[in-house]
Specification:
The complex is a heterotrimer.
Chain A (H helix, E strand, L loop, with lengths): L1 H15 L2 E12 L2 E12 L3 E5 L6 H9 L6 E6 L2 E2 L5 H8 L2 E4 L11 H11 L6 H14 L15 H13 L5 E5 L7 H18 L2 E6 L2 H7 L2 E6 L2 E6 L1 H5 L4 H4 L4
Parallel strand pairs in A: 3-8, 3-9, 6-7, 7-8
Antiparallel strand pairs in A: 1-2, 1-4, 4-5, 9-10
Helix pairs in contact in A: 4-5, 4-6, 5-6, 7-8
Chain B lengths: L1 H31 L6 E8 L10 E4 L2 E11 L5 E8 L11 E7 L4 E7 L12 E6 L4 H30 L1 H9 L2 H35 L4 H8 L2 H38 L3 H39 L1 H24 L1
Parallel strand pairs in B: 1-7, 2-6, 5-7
Antiparallel strand pairs in B: 1-4, 2-3, 3-4, 5-6
Helix pairs in contact in B: 2-4, 2-7, 4-6, 6-7
Chain C lengths: L1 H28 L5 H11 L4 H25 L6 H39 L2 H7 L4 H39 L4 H10 L3 H27 L4 H33 L4
Helix pairs in contact in C: 1-6, 2-6, 3-4, 3-6, 4-6, 4-7, 4-8, 4-9, 6-8, 8-9
Classes of the chains: A alpha/beta, B alpha/beta, C mainly alpha.
Chain lengths: 258, 334, 256
């Protein structure tokens, strides 16, 4: 039932034929360690793309390249029509404002309260917004993740799941077109992890965002993925829906689903 | 927001107090150097400023009055010291006040001391030039002392020779018939007398200096008090004085004798009388000469002792070096 | 071979620090100054360090006076104690001790803070949020260190001199006015100004090294600890090196 729904949705998106992120022949190595080797993939509007891979296979490197935290050695990255590798600082900041990034370690600013954490990207986006609008947006983002009561707490006072949700709220506050999730469920218990997964799906539905989800948690993949790409040996080893890959007979793909 | 306001106030207080202390510090130093407030310029000329430097203190009768602004060479012997003096001192400093350079402080800082003299005079105006008095310098005085000593020695030598001539029986006739003897004796005495006066002057100078030093004018005073140098110096001075004294008595005695001889020659009592007195006279002269010689010797010893005191070592070493260098120059010239 | 490697690592780090420092000037000159963060850092770096620096300065002045006293008395120049202590504090001890304590407190805290921010991806998060983290974190901190240390040095000087005044009064008796009169009489612009100027460089060095070590921290808690530790060690050494250079320059300029 669920799968059918997703297939329909995927088809609908595919029909739009509108890639928001386009990665071509990406190469990245650290010293002699080649992490990405001729990696190509597309992300379409409103799609949840899961990149599945083992630890150290270069999944995080991939999304860090997309947002410009790392510079690839070769290849092109196109985000919303911008060539990410040839932008000056101001343009890069503008594109980045349209991309949300959920860090594996949440990256909440320890020295600030939850409110200040959420205000930070708002104030930084250099959109002329008055204090009232900022307050409204902060509250809206917190309500989205059900944590409006934590607004004046410090990040250290929160549990792991709460912190993840606050981080998600911070990522969402600028209403990005694209969200990059770096292992969103890692380090959380299965129940909390499921909550986060549901949140990801809810966000996708509410804002019609396109998402890159980096994970090795198969439950997460099952719940959120419209499409799955398997990253292995630096390139896209297999691609398809969750069901397609689950039925795959390839031993390397199979090991993720066992 | 409230939190940030409070921290702003604290930050403001913090920064302001830090800067306030800096400004206060700079102001106090500036005040010391008379950069603020009303001042006027006074000048004084010296032949030797003894290392006086810009920023040195200026005192009027021991009271802080200002600082030295500049030390300029006017020509090869005159140095003009420009001083910034507080305006309120203007109505205390008379035009005929004397500026001298003295030493102050642990490090021997030089300062200008303006001292009023007894004679009344109008008060100074801007850019007035005060009379500069260069104080006596031990190093400068020692050569003078030595030359005096040499003079005394030479005169003593010549006197002795005269006396020996008198004593010599073969020369007796010559002496008896020679009317020029009293004359030459008199000449010698005059020389001795002059030397004595000269020695006396130097002794006074040195004593004045030592007294000044002892009064604690500067670091030299403290050092001298604790060392035996002062004692040595005093002893030396006493000896010099005693040489002078004995030279004086000698002069008086010889004078007497000369008078006697002359009287007797003039009174026609002839040489016989003189001969009768011969032994007494010669003995007397001989004694005196011995005294002079002893005095000269001990004076020389004292000079030697002075040379070895640490304060003056540098001076004598320099002198010796210059002697050596002239010697070696001569050698190389040859 | 190992020695060769060590030298190479040394020069690599020196080059890295130089580039990091030059980035400060390039980024600092660009518009969009992080004014609010700068003032926040001034408050933390300056105001919050005052109690510690005041305490050490006070003890320094007191102890120095009591240590110097017997010698000065034996030379009969106890009246010059304020002058000697004053010059020592204003010229050398105030700036250097303050800079060292500052390096210990602020260098380590910046190293640890930026190190943990680096490790927990907060620096990346900032960059992603459209904020130049170098500017937001490094420029503000370095600038705050550069401007706050001279203020701290001045206050520390004042507190040290007060400590010295109390130190004199433990054994002898001197009026407050006379003590400071002697101190100021023996101070000169050439004592205060070079010391004040060099404290800017001390502050700059502590800020840059702290930020550099934190910004380039390795992953893991050990990396953070190492950043904090090496920030203190390196900035303390650099404070002394700057002091050495400063004394040479003042000497050449004849300011002593």
């Amino acid at each position: 039932m669920l799968v059918e729904e997703k297939t329909i949705l995927t088809n609908k998106i595919n029909s739009k034929q509108q890639p928001v992120v386009e990665i071509r022949h990406l190469k990245k190595s650290f010293g002699n360690n080649v992490v990405l080797d001729d990696f190509s993939i597309e992300l379409k509007k409103g799609e949840n793309l899961v990149v599945l891979g083992r630890s150290g296979s270069g999944k995080s490197v991939l999304i860090k390249c997309i947002i410009g935290l790392l510079k690839p050695d070769a290849g092109t990255i196109d985000v919303l029509g911008y060539d990410m590798l040839n932008l000056d600082e101001d343009e890069l900041d503008k594109v980045r404002a349209k991309i949300g990034f959920l860090f594996q370690s949440n990256a909440l600013y320890d020295s600030m309260t939850v409110r200040e954490n959420l205000e930070f990207p708002l104030r930084r986006s250099w959109i002329a917004i008055n204090q009232q609008q900022i307050d409204e947006m902060v509250l809206e983002a917190l309500t989205n993740v059900d944590l409006a009561h934590t607004i004046n707490m410090m990040p250290v006072e929160l549990s792991g799941g709460m912190r993840k949700r606050i981080a998600l709220a911070r990522t969402l506050i600028l209403k990005p077109d694209i969200i990059l999730y770096d292992e969103p469920t890692t380090g959380l218990d299965p129940i909390t992890g499921k909550e986060i997964d549901e949140l990801i799906v809810a966000i996708q539905k509410k804002y019609n965002t396109a998402s890159f989800i980096i994970t090795h948690d198969i439950n997460c993949v099952r719940l959120v993925a419209d499409r799955v790409a398997v990253l292995m040996d630096g390139h896209c080893y297999a691609e398809g829906t969750f069901d397609e890959l689950q039925k795959s007979t390839d031993s390397k793909v199979k090991q993720f689903f066992e | 927001m409230a939190k940030s306001t409070i921290s702003n106030v604290k930050l403001g207080v913090f920064v302001t107090s830090g800067l306030a202390f800096l400004i206060f510090l700079l102001y106090m130093i500036g005040k010391k150097q008379n950069m603020f407030g009303s001042n006027f310029i006074l000048k004084a000329r010296f032949s030797n400023t003894q290392g006086l430097m810009q920023g040195g203190n200026v005192r009027f009768s021991g009271i802080e009055a200002g600082t030295v602004k500049a030390v300029n060479m006017i020509n090869d012997t005159v140095i003009e010291v420009e001083m910034i003096v507080k305006s309120k001192m203007k109505r205390f400093i008379p035009k005929n006040a004397i500026a001298s350079i003295s030493t102050d402080g642990l490090m021997g800082d030089k300062l200008v001391n303006i001292i009023p003299v007894k004679e009344p005079a109008a008060f100074v105006d801007e850019n007035d030039i005060l009379t500069g008095k260069s104080t006596v310098n031990i190093a400068d005085m020692l050569p003078r002392l030595q030359s005096t000593n040499n003079d005394v020695a030479i005169i003593a030598e010549s006197l002795k020779r005269t006396v020996q001539q008198i004593n010599n029986s073969t020369a007796l006739w010559k002496i008896l018939n020679d009317n020029t003897l009293p004359e030459s004796l008199r000449q010698s005495l005059k020389n001795v007398h002059q030397t004595t006066i000269k020695a006396g002057e130097i002794v006074n100078d040195v004593q004045q200096m030592v007294a000044g030093v002892k009064q604690g004018n500067g670091s030299l005073g403290t050092i001298l008090k604790d060392t035996t140098l002062a004692v040595n110096l005093n002893k030396a001075l006493l000896k010099i004085q005693s040489v002078g004294d004995s030279a004086d008595t000698l002069t008086a005695k010889i004078n007497n004798m000369v008078q006697l001889i002359q009287d007797e020659v003039e009174n026609g009592k002839g040489t016989a009388n003189a001969l009768l007195r011969d032994s007494v006279l010669v003995n007397k002269i001989n004694n005196s000469m011995d005294n002079v010689e002893k005095g000269t010797q001990s004076f020389n010893e004292n000079m030697e002792a002075l040379k070895h005191t640490f304060l003056l070592k540098g001076y004598f070493r320099k002198q010796q070096k210059s002697k050596q260098s002239t010697l070696s120059n001569k050698v190389t010239l040859k | 071979m190992e020695l060769h490697q060590n030298w190479k690592a040394f020069f690599a780090e020196a080059g890295d620090i130089s580039r990091f420092t030059s980035r400060f000037f390039v980024q600092g000159a660009k518009p969009r100054q992080e004014v609010a963060e700068f003032f926040r850092q001034c408050f933390i770096i300056g105001y919050k360090s005052l109690p510690l620096i005041g305490l050490t300065g006070f003890i320094m002045g007191l102890v120095l006076t009591m240590q110097i006293r017997p010698t000065m008395v034996s030379y009969g120049v106890q009246s010059q104690i304020p002058a000697m202590v004053g010059i020592a504090i204003v010229r050398e001890i105030g700036p250097v001790i303050t800079a060292l304590i500052f390096a210990g407190k602020i260098g380590s805290s910046i190293g640890a803070e930026l190190g943990s921010m680096k490790v927990t991806e907060q620096i990346d998060a900032m960059e992603v949020s459209g904020t130049n983290p170098y500017k937001y974190l490094v420029v503000t901190r370095v600038l705050a260190c550069t401007l706050m240390l001279p203020v701290l040095v001045m206050l520390s000087d004042a507190i040290s001199l007060y400590g010295s005044y109390l130190g004199v009064n433990i054994r002898g008796r001197t009026s407050f006015a006379f003590f400071f009169k002697v101190v100021f009489n023996n101070l000169d612009f050439s004592d205060v100004i070079p010391a004040f100027l060099k404290s800017f460089f001390f502050g700059f060095a502590v800020g840059v090294i702290g930020c550099y070590k934190g910004y380039n921290s390795n992953k893991g808690t050990e990396g953070v600890g190492y950043s904090a530790n090496s920030a203190v060690v390196l900035s303390s050494v650099i404070v002394f090196i700057i002091d050495l250079i400063a004394v040479q320059i003042t000497d050449i300029l004849g300011l002593n």
